[in-house]
Amino acid sequence: MMNVVASLPSSVSKKLFCARFHDGKICLEELFVHKRKYYRKIHTSFRCPTTPRLLIEYIKQITKILQWKEAIVNLTLEFEE
Q: Can you tell which superkingdom this protein's organism belongs to (predicted)?
């Protein structure tokens, strides 16, 4: 993935977004370059809602999930310019 980010045109932000699922936990992450180093930022993580209590915790994360989605849309729009 590092090669993919490095090969992006200079007009596009050097970012990569991913969603990981492991052991019932969903993580929404961003990989970005700053001063020639790669950093990973976890935007949010939550347990996959399988009970009413976990569903309430999931609902609390919706704002962060939508912010993560908006960042992906904005990066995609950079490719069109």
A: Eukaryota
